[in-house]
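Lecture notes, continued. The same structure-token format from the folding unit now serves as the input rather than the output. Read the line below as a description of shape only.
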């Protein structure tokens, strides 16, 4: 496959840097203009609404040897427990947030998708 076939500018590295340096003012102006257009385009996405449904089931990793396991009552799934929110699987901020939600009487349900990342 010819990788040069898909290049925007078919220049070697030296020619590329020369192009950037010689056209820096024009490129800055174009990027500023493009950034403004991008902002205007994103404004239309703010009002987008989609119906969200919690999946019927989710797969969570857990620590089988965890001591003192207790269910997290605020989670939408029955059986979701403290062996699933250990530092083996969750970041500190995720663990703290789930604990905060569990203790906060204003939080009715919590849903944590099984995605890592």
């Amino acid at each position: 496959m010819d990788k040069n076939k898909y290049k925007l500018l078919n220049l070697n590295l030296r020619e590329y840097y020369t192009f950037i340096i010689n056209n820096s003012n024009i490129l800055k102006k174009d990027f500023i203009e493009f950034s403004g257009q991008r902002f205007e385009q994103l404004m239309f996405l703010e009002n987008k609404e989609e119906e969200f449904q919690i999946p019927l089931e989710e797969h969570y990793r857990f620590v089988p040897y965890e001591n003192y396991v207790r269910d997290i009552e605020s989670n939408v799934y029955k059986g979701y427990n403290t062996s699933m929110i250990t530092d083996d699987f969750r970041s500190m901020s995720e663990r703290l947030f789930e604990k905060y939600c569990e203790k906060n009487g204003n939080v009715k349900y919590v849903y944590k998708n099984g995605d890592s990342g």
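Point for the exam: The mean pLDDT is 81.
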